[in-house]
Request: fold
Amino acid sequence: MSALFAPAELRGLRLPNRVVLSPMCQYAATDGVMNDWHLVHYGKFALGGAGLVLTEMTDVAPEGRITPACAGLYGDAAQAAAARIVGFCKAWGTARVGVQLAHAGRKGSTHPPARGGRPLAAGEGAWTTIAPSAVPYDDGWPAPAEATASDIARIRDDFVAAARRAEAAGFDLIELHGGHGYLLHQFLSPLTNRRSDAWGGTPARRMRFVIEVYEAVRAVWPADRPIGIRLSATDWVEGGWTPEETVALARTLKDLGIDYVDVSSGGLHPAQKIPLAPGYQAPFAAKVRAGAGVTTMTVGLIADPRHAERLVADGQTDFIKLGRGHLYDPHWAWHAAEALGVEIAYPPKLGAAQPKLRPMLFPARG
Ligand SMILES: Cc1cc2nc3c(=O)[nH]c(=O)nc-3n(C[C@H](O)[C@H](O)[C@H](O)COP(=O)(O)O)c2cc1C
Reply:
C-alpha cells in the first residue's frame, strides 16, 4: 500500500495518484499561443505516470505575462492551441490536465531568465506593468502603475474570461497562481500592497482581491471541476506576508469551496533568503493542512520516492508536486512506483514497458 499512489478525488475529478507536474514557464509561446514544443513537453508528462499535469503560468491578459514568450489564455488562437494539447494528453496519457492561471503584475515586461530576466527596454517591446501599488520589484526596475478600482475589476474579469476559455479547451482543473510574487501575491503582501482603500491595509483587505478572483472564477467554472490555488507561505523577508496569514486565507478559501492549496514560498522580494533543503516547504503545507483543514500540495526539492511517500503517509500533505525532478525524469512516477513496489496503470501504447512483464530486469522483483 502506498499513500503517494493512492487514487484521489478533487471534487468530481478522479486522479490516479498524488504525483503532480509543477507548473514551469517554458518561454516558448508567441503572442500567448502555445505550440509544438508545448505539445511534446506536456504530452510526455501526460504519458509519464503523474496523476495531474499542470501547465506553466498561463496569463489572463497580454500585460499579465512575465515575458513576450509566456503562454496566455486570452485569445481564440491561444484557446485552440491549448485545446490541441489537452486533447492529446487526455486521449493518449494517464494524467488529468490543469491550467495555472496567472497575472505577473509588477514582475512582467521582462526578458526570459535565460536572457538575463531584466526588464524590457522601450525599444524591446516593454509595456507598463500594473500592481496594487507603484512599488518597483528592484532597483533599476520601472515602477508599475497603481491599479485603479476599474483595473481591479477588469483583471478579475480577465481571470473569468480565461476560465471560460479553459473550460472550452477541455482542462480538468484550474490552479490560480497566488504565489511567487506575481499579481495576486502582490495584493497579499504588505511589502507590495501599500493601498489604504478596500484592497489594502488590514490583512483581510489585502486578501480581498484574491478572494474576489477565486469567487468570480468559481462562479463560471463547472461545478464538478476543482479549483486550487498556489500560495507563497512566506516572503522570507522581514515585514512580509506570513505563514499565519496563509493559514487564515486558506481557511477562508476552504470555506468558499476551494479544493486545494499548494504551499510554496518566496518570489516577492529580491532580499529573500531561502533555506533550501529537500522538502523545505513541506512544513508550511503541514501547517496549512492542519490549521485550515484544507487539502494541500507541497513542492520544492523533492526527488526521492521514499521522501515523497513519507510526506503523504505522515499527513504533512495530500499531493506532491515535482518540477525539476520531472524535467530530469519525465517518467518519475513510473520509477517511483517501482521503487515503492506499486503497480500503476501505463498508457495503452506504452504498456509493453511495464516492469511486471520483464521482472527479471528489476532486482526487487527477483
Ligand atoms: C524552469 C522553471 C519554471 C517555473 N515556472 C513556474 C510557473 O510558471 N509557475 C509556478 O507556479 N512555478 C514555477 N516554477 C516553480 C516550480 O513550479 C516549483 O515550485 C519549483 O521549481 C520547486 O520545485 P522543484 O524543486 O520540484 O523544481 C518554475 C520552476 C522552474 C525550474
Remarks:
- The first strand starts at residue 8 and ends at 10.
- Residues 183 and 256 are 21 Å apart (CA to CA).
